[in-house]
Design brief:
The complex is a heterodimer. Chain A is mainly β. Chain A has a single domain, classed as OB fold (Dihydrolipoamide Acetyltransferase, E2P), CATH 2.40.50.840. Chain A has a five-stranded antiparallel beta sheet, with no helix packed on it. In chain A, strands 2-1-3 form a three-stranded antiparallel beta sheet. Chain A is globular and about 45 Å long. Chain A starts with 16 loop residues before the first helix and ends with a strand. Chain B is an alpha/beta fold. Chain B folds into two domains: 133 residues, Peroxisomal Thiolase, Chain A, domain 1 (3-Layer(aba) Sandwich), CATH 3.40.47.10; 224 residues, Peroxisomal Thiolase, Chain A, domain 1 (3-Layer(aba) Sandwich). Chain B has 13 helices and eleven strands. In chain B, the strands form two sheets. A nine-stranded mixed beta sheet of chain B has the order 3-2-4-7-1-8-11-10-9, sandwiched between helices. Chain B has a two-stranded antiparallel sheet with strand order 5-6. The radius of gyration of chain B is 19 Å and the shape is globular. Classes of the chains: A mainly beta, B alpha/beta.
Chain lengths: 129, 385
Amino acid sequence: MSEMKKYPAPVTNPETAAFWDAAKEGKFMIKRCTACGEAHYFPRSICPFCYSDETVWEQASGEGTIYTYSLMRKSPTGPYAIGYVTLKEGPSVQTNFVDCDLEKLKIGQKVKVVFKPTDGAPLPFFTPA
Amino acid sequence: MTIKGKAYIAGIYEHPTRHAPDKSTAQLHAEVAKGAIEDAGISKDDIDGYFCAGDAPGGAWPMVDYLGLNTKKLRHVDSTETGGCSYIIHLGHAAEAIAAGKCSIALVTLAGKPRTGAMPPRAAGAEVDFESAYGATTHNAYGMCAMRHMHDYGTTSEQLAWIKVAASHHAQYNPHAMLKDVVTVEDVLNSPMISDPLHRMDCCVVSDGGGALIVTTPEIAKSLKKPLVRLIGHGEAMKGPRGGKDLDLTYSAGVWSGPRAFEEAGITPKDIKYASIYDSFTITVLMQLEDLGFCKKGEGGKFVADGNLISGVGKLPFNTDGGGLCSNHPVNRGGMTKILEAVRQLRGEAHPKVQVKNCDLAIAHGTGGLLGVRHAASTAILERV
């Protein structure tokens, strides 16, 4: 079912193009502020914490733990699980959990990033590590 | 500067329809405007302030024109859009405008047809590429909050079910309610799982309809015939993942809007006799009760259990019209109806079976957007004079 699911291609824009370019190479990027040291997601050019414009791209480990999730039992494309993953680097990211038994997801479970193709850049998802 | 006591709700109207296949959305706006104007006993040509949100077709200026408002007199408009709580924010903004002398009789309208018409898509924010593919809906966004709340505080599905049970006890007396049957905790737990851990009966209804308010000065309100109800405190706030730092979905922006409103009103949650709390889902109510200070964070489950929200039974009668869980949820937005039932309670116009005795202080609180993603909250404290 999840293999059949078609995901929308990111539109992208100048602020986030580097994220999607990296995604094409299988890299999951976050932004880090060199002024305050905080990482954030989704990526912005101005740090949302200290408002410095000295933010830089950083390849994230792609590893994290499930902060929360909810299993949507029905949808036009079948059941899916939405949730947040707290990355090793700190920020929590919204995602879907894929390639696993959705009934067995648990808060605190270790997961890793996996990219799924679209008609444009691939999209990041998470699956049990 | 405060808005305390500077604005009165002089007119209210809730559309009785829950299913309006033969009406237009603009028409529903006009019908609720007419209802509130007649309830207040004013003329439409006296209205000099108009407030609407994203449900108003085309926004403020097409609506002002369609409604035939007196444009020689109309001098203040506000189309703040914060989802379901827009109208509670409008109430506060109307009070601010009235206190500042920018208008003297404000009309607020909400109406729409999610049940029999198409809903306009939500405008995309900067996050669109990083979130839209993941299918966040109201059900699963609130489901994510409930899941984490259960994890952190041991909240149970049984406790959430009590919120629906209380709403159903009230809805049995509302002739317009979509769902009038009293339900049990077991009924809720046995209803199909929609998005874990929320069952179908944890979710509000989808209904057509609408509602409207007339907000005015103390002097004008006192010249009219309705019992006097005034706004004494108001708060608004927003919350989102904000870069994903320290994500905590177990509390809402109500932790900020609530204290702002209570501080302005100079009262505490203990003083509240009746509470209208937005009930898009049972978890919405539980989290808001905690965030507003009716109980400590994490103790919402205990607070709502055993009928504590049932009028005449528990300590905090809530949503005595049946709320969004049982009565209606016009345009998928619950803020307006929260104000309307609070005003009915303060006027003594609620159904006798659910009317709170000596109801002199009420709260109307709502959220808008997705609690599990990004949202707004607004709190209004209302007093019978």
